[in-house]
Structures are given as structure tokens and as C-alpha cells.
């Protein structure tokens, strides 16, 4: 698995690393006091504030699905890029639309679209996955 990671294109390594680091969100939402407090929209939040502001479920979902996507990218699973794309779109779009912030929807679609285009259009990534 380490050899596969070494042979990845640089940007794909960053995407995979980001996905793996997202496990910290899962730990932050489930373990009180884990890594202290953090700031969200200018508000300092600890464990109680996370759950009081309905962020706990989102952090658990991000912390559960992104690391799996990162692992699948490294393992070169046949549908890993599709799975990562689905998780990425869900993380960006569902919170935006569930809060009714449709003004931000173009940005919520733009950023994942760039990453997805890279995953499927980059020559280096296609060579890495053998497609």
C-alpha cells in the first residue's frame, strides 16, 4: 500500500492525504475533549457546542466516509474515484441545500467539480489507475 501511495501523482497524494486526515472529524465528534476546541464560523466550539449546533452528525459522516474513500484511492479499487466523487459532492452539497443556502450552491458545485475533473481527466491519474 505504501508503494502504491509513492507512485501516485502529487495532487492525488494530497487528495488521498486529506481524505485520511478527515478521520479526525470522527474522533472530534465522538470523543469529548479530543484535540481541544476549534472555531467554526467565528464561534469557538468544544464537544458540547458541536452537538448543540447540529455539527456532530456531519462530522461523523465526513470522518467515516472520507477515510474510506482515501483508502480505496490508494488500493486502486475499480470504483474508488466514483466513490470519492460521490462523498465529495455529498459533503459539499447536502449541508448547503439542507440549510437553504442556495446562494452558495454554485461554489459548492464548483470546487468538487474541479477535483472530480482532475480525477477523471488527468493523464497521470488515468495512467495510475490504468484507464
UniProtKB/TrEMBL annotation:
The lineage of its organism: Bacteria, Pseudomonadati, Pseudomonadota, Gammaproteobacteria, Alteromonadales. It comes from the Bacteria. Keywords: Membrane, Transmembrane, Transmembrane helix. The keyword Transmembrane helix applies. The chain crosses the membrane at residues 12-35, 55-75, 82-97, 103-120. This is DoxX-like family protein.
